[in-house]
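Renewal narrative, Specific Aim 1. Our central claim is that a sequence can be written position by position from structural information alone. The example that follows is taken directly from our test logs and has not been curated for this report. It begins with the structure tokens describing the chain, in the order in which they were read.
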């Protein structure tokens, strides 16, 4: 049986997360063919979710901002948390809370009130910026010219620190080339805490830098590190493309089934969440029991394959249904909108949410469970109809 207490706890958590989402505003490309989205300086939003080919956010955000696109420029102030993902990112508006940023080329030129988590290829945190909490950064080339109130943790190919860091500093560098794995403390660098450095070569300390007592551990350069990062990046992009293509196939050939699942999730969200949670836990237990008894190992093998397919399709269907629901809100349509635009929106939003610790993961898990529950419900109804 399903533990009702676990369902109640999960439902309560998801309800809180959903409350934030329902209170949010959404912006996406309109139907006129323009893939870009601009939030004008005269606009004010509470919590804003925006996605497009090129996104420019000039307006004031009184709550959180979630933005994704090929190029994203955040110029207006964000009162609370900032979450951005894309190719080329520029942040020049003040952020009152935490910031989580992931992209290719990233430039940050504004104060961050809380912690900053940033990952990318080339990262520049200019002297116009400041970090009110901790800084966690991972990238190929990192330049830090902004003061950091808290601790600094960095993993990179090369990093230059040319500002004051009041907390401890932990640096992990890698690279087998001549100009790889370099750590440079510039003339304006000042570290008040302890410094720990692991890498292929010792740090370079420029004249004027207030740095002492570096705890250095030699790690042989790994020439394959960048290749591995490149491989993982390509694999990630391939996964997104595969999701999109598979979603297009489902939209073309199984649209009626998707409509039924979306309607089921809309009408019975918590029941579908509970059903999805039960399926996620109970099915592998049944397969293991069948396998242990030996007499059912054929059925166990079939059930295991079916379970893997169920998980894969639940994740994809969750993205499709989420995108259809978001597009329904954006277009103010009475029905769910199943188009390639809604599919792309759902995939991008789920991808961005995965970069958000705890809350983002919970929302993604909830979408997955509801989609799995809806899929199981529709499959059961189809099975019943065929055997009656």
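The sequence written for that structure reads:
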């Amino acid at each position: 049986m399903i533990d009702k207490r676990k369902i109640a706890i999960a439902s309560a958590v998801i309800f809180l997360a959903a409350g934030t989402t329902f209170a949010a505003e959404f912006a996406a490309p309109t139907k006129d063919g323009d893939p870009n989205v601009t939030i004008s300086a005269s606009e004010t939003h509470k919590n804003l979710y925006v996605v497009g080919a090129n996104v420019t956010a000039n307006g004031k955000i009184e709550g959180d901002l979630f933005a994704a696109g090929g190029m994203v420029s955040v110029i207006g102030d964000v009162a609370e948390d900032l979450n951005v993902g894309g190719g080329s990112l520029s942040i020049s508006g003040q952020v009152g809370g935490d910031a989580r940023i992931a992209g290719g080329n990233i430039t940050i030129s504004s104060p961050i009130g809380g912690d900053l988590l940033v990952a990318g290829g080339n990262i520049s945190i200019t002297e116009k910026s400041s970090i009110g909490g901790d800084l966690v950064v991972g990238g190929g080339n990192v330049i830090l010219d902004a003061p950091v109130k808290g601790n600094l943790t960095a993993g990179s190919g090369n990093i230059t620190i040319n500002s004051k860091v009041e907390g401890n500093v932990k640096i992990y560098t890698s690279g087998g080339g001549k100009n790889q794995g370099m750590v440079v403390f510039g003339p304006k660098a000042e570290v008040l805490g302890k410094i720990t450095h692991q890498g292929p070569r010792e740090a370079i300390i420029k004249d004027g830098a207030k740095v002492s007592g570096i705890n250095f551990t030699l790690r042989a350069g790994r020439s394959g590190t960048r290749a591995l990062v490149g491989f993982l990046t390509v694999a990630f992009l391939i996964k997104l493309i595969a999701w999109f293509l598979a979603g297009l196939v489902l939209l073309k050939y199984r649209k009626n089934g998707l409509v039924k699942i979306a309607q089921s999730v809309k009408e019975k969200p918590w029941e579908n969440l509970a059903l999805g949670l039960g399926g996620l836990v109970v099915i592998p237990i049944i397969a293991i029991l069948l396998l242990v008894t030996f007499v059912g190992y054929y059925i166990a093998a079939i059930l295991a394959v079916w379970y893997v397919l169920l998980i894969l399709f639940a994740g994809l269907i969750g993205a499709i249904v989420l995108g259809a629901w978001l597009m329904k809100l954006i277009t103010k349509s009475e029905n769910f909108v199943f188009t390639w635009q809604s599919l792309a929106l759902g995939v991008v939003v789920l991808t961005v949410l995965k970069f958000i610790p705890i809350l983002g993961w919970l929302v993604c898990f909830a979408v997955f469970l509801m989609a799995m529950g809806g899929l199981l419900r529709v499959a059961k109804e189809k099975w019943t109809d065929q055997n009656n």
